[in-house]
Amino acid sequence: MKKDAKEPLKEIHDDSAAHSQLTMQVVEHVRGLIASGEVKPGDRLPPERDLARQLKISRSSLRAGIGFLSAMGVLKSRHGAGTFVSSGPPALDSSSLSVLGVLHGFMPWQMFEARLVIESNVAALAAERASGEHIAELAEEVAEMYATLDNPHQYLIHDVRFHRTVARASGNPILGALMETITANLYEYRSKTVMNAQDLKESAEMHREVYRAIRSHNPTQARTAMEKHLNLARIAQAAEVDLTPAPAHVDDTHAD
Asked: Which pLDDT value is given to residue 16?
């Protein structure tokens, strides 16, 4: 019985590992298209059908990779028009933080401590400086979080987009660049555990509190709401990690 009870967890981990590998395959392919100059900022990517055929993966796996790049601000999807390379600076090289983490043994609590220092003040600045466009984008991401409570991976994409928008709303490009690096690292790390999330609704409500404070142009309230959100997120993510099985070898030759 014990063996049978553990089997679903192994299957979940195997699926998650394969999902991550295929996502990074899409990321590397798009990185190559940009590096070669085949696509430039503002250009539209080839149709999903063609990209999936080139990469020999399913369209659902392709969308997962596009979702990753969209969360990082590299791509932007327009309803009915396709997926475009963003005009802003891409965050494809934000893996440097991950490399430093491996070299120096960064701990999750240290990442959250850094986020507390940076993001709480970024939120306060956003409350002072956010434009109507920024506020509309934040509202849209909060609405999408509530709409994807039953789909943790999609929820995470909107979660990351929300934090990137707050950073842009701060009006400080240096803080924005720092947050691009942090959110890229956050997505990469959290995508491996988010399937174990216990209460995404509570997370959505915390994001809504931050949004409301920024919309009200209340810096003190925005700082406090962001601090509260990050402290609860630290606890929630630790619980997700505890529910994640130990890594196992995955043969990805038939992953998709």
From this structure: 54
**Coil vs helix vs strand at 78:** strand
Cα distance between the two ends of the chain = 30
Give the pair of three-digit tokens for residue 92. 């494809």
The Cα 206–Cα 30 span in angstroms is: 33
Query: CB–CB of 179/164 below 8 Å?
Result: yes
Structure token digits, residue 102: 């491996």
Q: What does the CA dihedral 246, 247, 250, 255 come to, rounded to 10 degrees?
A: 80
- Cα 169 to Cα 125: distance, rounded to the nearest angstrom: 8
Amino acid at 52: A
Q: What is the DSSP string of 148-201?
A: TTT-HHHHHHHHHHHHHHHHHHTT-HHHHHHHHHHHHHHHHHHTTTGGG-S-HH
b/e burial code for range 176-200 (CB count within 10 A of at least 16 → b): bebbbbbbbbbbbbbbbbbbbbeeb
| Range 75-82, long-range pairs (CB < 8 A, 24+ positions) | 75/30, 75/45, 81/44, 82/44, 82/45, 82/47
In contact, 72 and 163? CB cutoff 8 Å: no
pLDDT mean by block of 10 residues, the chain; 256 residues? 44 52 81 82 86 87 82 74 71 49 62 90 98 96 95 91 94 86 77 86 96 98 97 88 59 42
